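Hi C.,

You asked whether I'd gotten around to modeling the 507-residue construct. I have! Everything is below, sequence then structure, no commentary in between.
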Amino acid sequence: MTDTLSDALPHPDDSDLPTGTVDVLLIGGGIMSATLGTLLHELQPDLKIAVFERLSDVALESSNAWNNAGTGHAALCELNYTPEGKDGTVDPSKAISINEQFQQSRQLWSSLVEAGVLDAPSTFINSTPHMTFVRGEKDVAFLKKRYEALKDQPLFAGIEYSEDSRVINQWAPLLMQKRRKGEPFAATRVPAGTDVDFGALTRQLFAHLAENGADVRTNTEVRKLKRLPDGTWRVKYRRTVGRTPGEIRAKFVFVGAGGWALKLLQRSGIPEISGYGVFPIGGQFLKTTNPAIVAQHKAKVYSQASVGAPPMSVPHLDTRVVDGEASLLFGPFATFSPKFLKNGSMLDIVTQVRAHNLGPMLKVAIDNPSLITYLVGELLKNHKRKVDSLRTFVPTAKDGDWELIQAGQRAQVMKKDPEKGGILQFGTEVVTGADGTIAGLLGASPGASTAASIMLGLLKTCFPDRIGAWEPRLRELIPSYGETLNARPDAALDVLSETADALALTA
């Protein structure tokens, strides 16, 4: 396979620009478009599919390996998915739901590996235990309650808990070196966790689509969308190299363009986007490739977020495997840019404003002073202070061993709320036109990991007349389709084992 998908595409320049009508137009070259395009091709191979990506290759924004945390979010270690109620109980329902969704992604990937659509599993997914590590009596008590709430759930089978420094040292030695004596700490560990390179996965999915007739175009930016009387969409685009304009019609449009999805949905004129805005939050990570350090840590370790920090900023120390090379990342450290994408416009945050979303956005600003305080504090941190934050995880960390890298932009959803006027929402949301001919995805984590589940929901909403005929094939691709695994322990065990074998994962 070529290093970049664009090298392998049949139309690298302005020759033979796409025209006419396609069944499906996917805007944006990320994991969401790749997943939806793959599902549609598997369900109905005769569909005419086109893909437009404004950058020079697919998977260069949020799906890029260095622009996201790449955990394969399964709620195994992320504390914000198991909130503690006022009565002190821990609710595992959201964690179970997210794990169910991740299992659907794993099943789809394993089916595609077996069919030869995807390359060897190690090119995009690797076994990496998921851990949670906390300090202080309050957080230790919470983590123990979380463990008790999860340990008997079938999808969390094998979760371990310890307050013993010797045990935790065996799990993740870097965490325990020169740890202060008498300090309360605890950890949980799930050996069956994974590390996912969504960039590699995305490129492979698009390569298969291109090889099977999809018209995948990079350096192609959508400018306008208009719904025509016959129900199709007229989409005007422009080549980013040479500025050559073009026009295409589509029976169905999916906007998977990250932060720009809001702008394109606004241009479409659908009323369903009314009241929506986005708040961009960037991120940075500390990274090391020092073999001596990397060799001492094979895990993804999450902890509690700082007061006022958004869920996406929960600190974690991650093993990453990208292009076969292992490294460690720590962060994220929040940054601010008015851009909705890493390669966006400095005017993005202003040009999104409409009469219908100004009120909700102002209400969000008023109601979230702690977020603003947190962002300001993060922006004031220099490299030394960021390594100081790392030392809460790795007491022996040295400034010179870690470099700072810029991650991607996350466009957090702001929307109308009947009670509060406006809310800031952490998560993903699909906005669909009333007739089902256009849909777009807004938001961030845990999006990539749950792409299969999100796109299955979109298929039901946007293709209600076809979903019934597609369901037998969907069950072949995703055996648990339409059912919940956690309610069926034997089925959960079988599916977890089968996908682990197909993806060559070892606990």
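If it helps when you're writing up: Residues 93-114 form the longest helix (22 residues).

Thanks,
B.
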